[in-house]
Design goal:
about 130 residues, mainly alpha, Arc Repressor Mutant, subunit A, two-stranded antiparallel sheet, 2 strands
Length: about 130
């Protein structure tokens, strides 16, 4: 990965504090969709239906729940526009941008992991074909 790994203290107190910080982050950002939602909204503001189309597999109840939690934790804002009809747009807050490095690292790690698994699958299929045809 591209970022420098920070030296972690190697004592029980520092470890417990680190575990607490990680648990706090996962409490707020955990789940299958929250980081993906933040990433998507950092790219550009979107309506509910746009988000649902982009994030194939998320149901409307889960999307509504995660958007509400992200709003409560100040990662996104919900803007309501009233012209001829009501239009609701979800937008990333400046606080969301504090996660750009985390999202970038996760994206890079995800790419590398997918390539590693694909490479492993090729080895397995190459090896199994070798075993079948001596």
């Amino acid at each position: 990965m591209h970022t420098q790994v920070h030296q972690m203290a190697h004592n029980e107190e520092a470890c417990l504090a680190s575990v607490g910080h990680i648990r706090d982050a996962l409490y707020v950002l955990g789940g299958k969709w929250k980081l993906v939602l933040i990433f998507t909204l950092i790219e550009s503001p979107k309506r509910f239906n746009e988000l649902q189309k982009l994030l194939k597999g998320i149901g409307p109840k889960m999307l509504a729940k995660d958007l509400k939690e992200l709003e409560l934790n100040e990662f996104i804002i919900r803007k309501t526009y009233t012209a001829t009809s009501i239009k609701i747009i979800y937008e990333a807050t400046p606080y969301s941008h504090s996660l750009i490095m985390v999202l970038s690292e996760l994206r890079e790690w995800g790419y590398q992991h997918r390539e590693k698994i694909k490479k492993g699958m090729r080895k397995t299929s190459d090896h199994s074909s070798y075993l079948q045809n001596p």
